[in-house]
Amino acid sequence: MDALLVVSLLVVGFVVFLIATAGKRKQALEEALKKLESERMKLKKSIEHVKLSFYQKKLGEKEAQDKIFEYEEELRDVEARIAEIKEKPLMRTLKKQEGEDERGEREAVEETEGLFMEHLDVKAIAGMFVFIVVALIAVAVIMNGSSTSSRGMSKIVIPVSAFTTPTKGTHPGGSAGLTVEIKNEGKEDLRGVLVTAEVPEGSGLEFMEMGTDVGEKIGTTAVREVPVLESGGSRDVFFPIAVDRNTMEGVYNIHVEVSDVSGRVEGYADSTLEVRIGRLES
């Protein structure tokens, strides 16, 4: 591949870069110009305000002249910056006609392509083929990495079901239990799965610690951890519930959420517990 071909490729790449970044450069210049125009209008209003204050004898002549001089100095500086931006090649081109900019860039590409085709040989074709293949591989790797990253952060929704025992309900001063079944239908093991159960505040229902006869009450929210939930596996998580003797008769909703430390896993379920006063049905 001779030097002329290399130069041609570099020129084509540079022109493509200009086309690709023209939009961002245009936006940045237009935003800067908009801010300066706004500043210029504020300074003009300030000058008019000083003049009005002088005419209404709210300001003395010297004070008014000093303020006007100060504002005019700032105004000249702002107008100079506006003119500088408008004189930039990109802004000049955009002001004339955006189509001319595209046509000029297109002509530059065509001229370079013509020069390139005149000196095209077998080595050049091979070089261009390698260049295109490398570029395509790079794009594929970037897109695949982005897709993998996206998949890595996607939510894993797992099936959750919950039910209470006794199924016929319980009575004030009694006890009950909540069983939560979670399943992992995915292809990877899930670690550090957290099962959180919550009963209504002020209902008289409270969760108890596991493994005690009396059961130490731990509040209206309880959390159990499943260290590992294997792919294709399931777990039953049990929550003992104490019912205060002053609990009102009624049906109470129990909400269950499943999550993990990474925030990827999620699952939801609801169950109910009926509290009855009097003899329960067998």
Structure notes:
The longest helix is centred in the N-terminal third of the chain and has 53 residues, at 3-55. 13% of the residues are buried. The protein has five helices and ten strands, in the order αααααββββββββββ. The mean pLDDT is 77. It folds into two domains: 3-120; 156-275, ntegrin, alpha v. Chain A, domain 4 (Immunoglobulin-like, Sandwich). With 282 residues, the chain is of the alpha+beta class. It starts with a helix and ends in a 7-residue tail after the last strand.
Please provide a brief summary of the model.
By secondary structure, the chain is an alpha+beta fold. The protein is built from five helices and ten strands; from the N terminus they run αααααββββββββββ. Helix 1 (3-55) packs antiparallel against helix 2 (61-86) and helix 1 (3-55) packs antiparallel against helix 4 (98-118).
